[in-house]
């Protein structure tokens, strides 16, 4: 019986996903977006709110990845592309335009009893790849570093690993499935280090400064805190958006949308 | 008369429909799982799927070997049974034969309560109490490990083992025990040489039921085992078949998602085998 319940869950989930991913493109009263899986929460919240405010409009989001999203815009298969990295020069030259919607700041957290307070990106990368194994090498206690991370496919993990350049090289001790679990585990183990999106950090753990900069809305926005990346809307320079898509675009970048972006754990750009 | 007969037919129909719905669900899930699980196995190859030692589902060159999950599930379940069976078995013997009525009532209520605790609560307590204690007790850098999962599962299988063994022991005919005592055996000798052997297939069924419960558990295990796809080792972070599906499903796509269905299919086959064993044992007990 217990197994059955679980399979129902999976079944239901699969059905939902199939329905959600079914459409991109579409008619007049629709907005289709395609791209970064890390932006799922932000775009999901914005899309839902937008549909609620504008009855009869359909909003679709196809979570394919930043690269695919950018291609989709340039090929015209969706209205707005979503990218969790800035556009490359070549992409801009091909006639695409980026508009920063929000920033994703990732905080590094350690146990409050850990004497280490500051690190630089290089050290963080060395720690996560297993090159530095003991806290005393970075000025802490003589204890093995316990690396806490997120599961494969998580947006936070993808963000952290791509910013620190540790993709596929992290030697995790634990891969947890939620930010809450990461925070709880780090607060329980004096030798643990973990990462979480800034919005969900609690006072049970200590936030490490990176190059002396404490992550906050301000330091993320002005770029002085480096473990961050932009969430970008990608559009074509020479092609006007449909009326509905344009109104979504404008609304998402307005102050009104900020509360949804904040709720989804990101820092609004405007 | 005629009206009563129609009513009878209608009710008959309702019962039949209810029965058919249950069967339809079972069939639907089985067929869906087979259809969803086969493509990835075909693409990856059965032997490199089942016996591959590396699981890197989101790497540029992804690897889908689930041997670590299979072994972890087997080791974890075996460990839980090894810890849980003696405790469960002796409690059942005590409750069935030795305990005074009042004690029996209290303990039985406690066991039922234990069965009713949601698995996420087991996980939470494990995460906040057990994992830090293992870390301190064994001087390992982190307590989230196979051992933690074994202990949590052992507690979780206790109610199934105790309850089913208790029923089996209570069903032993009184004459057997009276006969044994009349021949001069002490009570304890009687319980272990007469009652337990007489109830042995029922007790075996209890253990198998415990195995089924342990191998299918996901939530509690996910919270205490660390979830890194390592080969199983007592103090290392490990990932079970169940947690492999549960932890990656929400963000998965493409072949990764299909492979997760295949993992679920493998788990399903395991559970089916366990159920078949259970049915076999229960049938044998009935025939006695």
What does this structure look like?
The complex is a heterodimer of chains A (270) and B (288). Chain A contains 10 helices and 12 strands. Chain A is of the alpha/beta class. In chain A, the strands form 2 sheets. In chain A, strands 1, 2, 3, 4, 6, 7, 8, 9, 11 and 12 form a 10-stranded mixed sheet that branches. In chain A, strands 5-10 form a two-stranded parallel sheet. The termini of chain A are far apart. The two termini of chain B are 44 Å apart. In chain B, 42% of the residues are buried. The chains are: A alpha/beta (270), B mainly alpha (288). Chain A binds chain B through residues 2-4, 6-8, 10-11, 13-14, 37, 63-64, 143-146, 151-155, 168, 172-177, 181, 184-185, 188-189, 191-192, and chain B through 25-26, 29, 32-33, 36, 56-60, 127-128, 131-132, 135, 141-144, 213, 216-218, 222-223, 226-228, 237, 239, 242, 245-253, 256, 261, 264, 267-268, 271.
Spell out the key features of this protein.
heterodimer, A: 270 residues, alpha/beta, D-Maltodextrin-Binding Protein, domain 2, 2 domains, 10-stranded mixed β-sheet, two-stranded parallel ribbon, 10 helices, 12 strands, 36% helix, elongated, disordered N terminus, B: 288 residues, mainly alpha, MetI-like fold, two-stranded antiparallel sheet, 12 helices
Largest interface: A-B, 36 and 47 residues
Main pleated sheet of chain A: 10 strands, mixed
- Domains of chain B (count): 2
Count of alpha and pi helical runs of chain A:
10
Overall shape of chain B: globular
String of helices and strands of chain B: HHEEHHHHHHHHHH
Radius of gyration of chain B (Å): 23 Å
Can you write the helix and strand succession of chain A as a string?
A: HEHEHEHEEHEHEHEEEHEHHE
Helix content of chain B: over 70%
CATH class of the largest domain in chain B: Mainly Alpha
If classified by CATH, what would the architecture of the largest domain in chain A be? 3-Layer(aba) Sandwich
Amino- and carboxy-terminal Cα gap of chain A? 50 Å
Mean pLDDT of chain A, rounded to whole units?
85
CATH architecture of the largest domain in chain B: Orthogonal Bundle
């Amino acid at each position: 019986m217990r197994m059955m319940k679980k399979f129902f869950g999976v079944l239901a989930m699969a059905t939902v996903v199939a329905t959600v991913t079914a459409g991109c493109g579409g008619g007049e009263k629709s907005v289709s977006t395609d791209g970064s899986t890390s932006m799922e929460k932000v775009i999901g919240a914005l899309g839902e709110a937008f549909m609620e405010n504008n009855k009869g409009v359909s909003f679709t989001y196809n979570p394919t990845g930043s690269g695919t999203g950018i291609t989709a815009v340039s090929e015209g298969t969706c209205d707005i592309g979503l990218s969790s990295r800035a556009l490359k020069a070549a992409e801009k030259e091909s006639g695409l335009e980026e508009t920063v919607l929000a920033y994703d700041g990732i905080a590094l957290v350690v146990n409050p009893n850990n004497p280490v307070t500051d690190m630089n990106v290089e050290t963080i990368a060395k720690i996560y790849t297993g090159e530095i194994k003991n806290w005393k090498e970075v000025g802490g206690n003589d204890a093995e570093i316990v690396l806490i991370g997120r599961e494969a496919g998580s947006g936070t993990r993808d963000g952290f690993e791509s910013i620190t350049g540790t993709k596929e090289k992290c030697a995790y001790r634990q891969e947890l499935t939620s930010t809450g679990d990461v925070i709880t585990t780090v607060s329980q183990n004096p030798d643990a280090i973990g990462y979480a999106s800034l919005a969900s950090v609690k006072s049970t753990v200590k936030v490490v400064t990176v190059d002396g900069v404490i992550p906050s809305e301000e330091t993320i926005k002005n770029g002085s805190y480096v473990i961050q990346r932009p969430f970008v809307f990608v559009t074509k320079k020479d092609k006007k958006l449909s009326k509905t898509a344009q109104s979504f675009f404008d609304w998402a970048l307005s102050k009104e949308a900020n509360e949804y972006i904040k709720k989804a754990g990101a820092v609004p750009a405007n | 008369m005629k009206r009563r007969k129609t009513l009878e037919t209608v009710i008959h129909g309702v019962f039949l429909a209810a029965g058919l719905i249950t069967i339809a669900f079972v069939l639907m899930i089985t067929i869906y799982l087979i259809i969803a699980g086969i493509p990835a196995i075909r693409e990856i190859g059965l032997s490199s799927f089942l016996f591959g030692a590396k699981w890197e589902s989101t790497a540029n060159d992804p690897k889908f070997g689930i041997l670590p999950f299979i072994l972890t599930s087997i080791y974890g379940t075996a460990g839980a049974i090894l810890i849980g069976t003696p405790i469960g078995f002796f409690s059942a013997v005590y409750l069935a034969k030795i305990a005074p009525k009042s004690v029996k009532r209290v303990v039985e209520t406690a066991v039922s309560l234990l069965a009713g605790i949601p698995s996420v609560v087991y996980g939470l307590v494990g995460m906040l109490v057990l994992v830090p204690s293992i870390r301190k007790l064994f001087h390992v850098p982190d307590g989230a490990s196979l051992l933690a999962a074994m202990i949590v599962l052992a507690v979780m299988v206790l109610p199934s083992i105790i309850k089913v063994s208790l029923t089996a022991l209570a069903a032993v005919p009184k004459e057997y025990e009276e006969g044994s005592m009349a021949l001069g055996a002490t009570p304890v000798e009687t319980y272990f040489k007469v009652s337990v052997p007489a109830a042995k297939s029922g007790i075996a069924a209890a253990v198998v039921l415990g195995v089924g419960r342990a191998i299918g558990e996901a939530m509690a295990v996910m919270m205490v085992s660390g979830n890194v796809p390592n080969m199983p080792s007592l103090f290392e972070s490990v990932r079970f078949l169940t947690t492999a599906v549960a932890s990656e499903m929400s963000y998965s796509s493409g072949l990764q998602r299909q492979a997760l269905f295949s993992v679920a299919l493998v788990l399903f086959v395991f559970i089916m085998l366990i159920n078949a064993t259970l049915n076999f044992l229960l049938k044998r007990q009935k025939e006695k």
